[in-house]
Design goal:
The protein is mainly alpha-helical. The protein is about 70% helix and about 0% strand. It has a two-stranded antiparallel ribbon with strand order 1-2. Helix 2 packs antiparallel against helix 10, helix 2 (about 50-70) crosses helix 12 (about 280-300) and helix 12 (about 280-300) crosses helix 13. The longest helix has 27 residues, at about 225-250. It is globular and about 75 Å long. Mean pLDDT is about 85; it is low at about 1-15 and about 20. It is a multi-pass membrane protein. Keywords: Cell membrane, Membrane, Transmembrane, Transmembrane helix. This is Branched-chain amino acid ABC transporter permease.
Amino acid sequence: MSELKTVTKPATSVAPPATSVVARLRWPLIATAAVVLLACAAPFQLVPFHTFQLAMAMVYAVTLLGLNLLVGHTGQISLGHGAFFAVGAYTAAIAMERWDTPYFATIPLAAAVTFALGFALGIPALRLRGLYLALVTLAIAIFLVPLLKRFDGLTGGSMGLTVTKPVPPAWTGLAEDQWLYFLALVTTVLSFVLVAGMLRSRVGRALHAVRDNEIAAEVLGVNLAHYKTLAFAWSALLAGVAGCVYTWVIAFVSPDSFAVTLSVTLLAGLVVGGLGTTWGPVLGGLFVMFVPSFAQDVNQAAPGVIFGLLIIAVMYLAPTGLAGLVTQWSQWLGHRVRKGKNHAH
């Protein structure tokens, strides 16, 4: 009787086909390139006011990018990012108006000031978390406005400061609104590239570990104090850079422009856009820019009511934010396309 021999093949790890990896990377890159190309063409097709609105949406997107780094990727709540935004705006305005600083030099200045401020705030925030941390950051946003009004010799007090808008170089052939738009666009693209590189590095993995489970992250050797303060500092830096570009675009700063409602609106915009997502800050920036003005047009007596109802509606229809909704739609569409191809074959 012949013996039956069972031949066991050695287990081998099957690597995903290179084509599938390329396919996964191709569509996000194509979508990103398409968005950038549309953004480059927009100021040549729109009237100046709409160009200004899109520039402001990009300014808010950079602010939300910093807030997303702190809240979405590190898990720390902040209700005071309007304060960092204001510090960056006032740093640029004071440097341009009082010290005749070239406007390009105000970006590193605003970045350095807000980075130091965020790092300083991150140290005491190490002992706080959750609602306690949110209250501390909210307190900063509350007392900043009267503080700006008090030092009127430097900040212009309640009247604020008016600065000269950056003039486009003659060789560009651009109008003033188009030049400011492209300054905002370049700042936005560079900020997103910087944060994307950070999140793909060891720093990004550490921030995600802190967000998911602080105790487990510490056991694995993550220095909680270092990465929490780093997240605060980089988040504040991005808000400060956005505030600097805001000063270029608006050419005016006043304390009332940075009331505590700005910080609340920024956090709401980030949640609506999508926490911890790539496109969340962009969609949130568009939401922060256009929805309040839409609410004002619908009901001038109570725009806050319309704004609040719109937030509730978006959260009901898209619990993971607009970016999550777009992802679900794209996955559904891709599934339908693949299903159609299979039926065709």
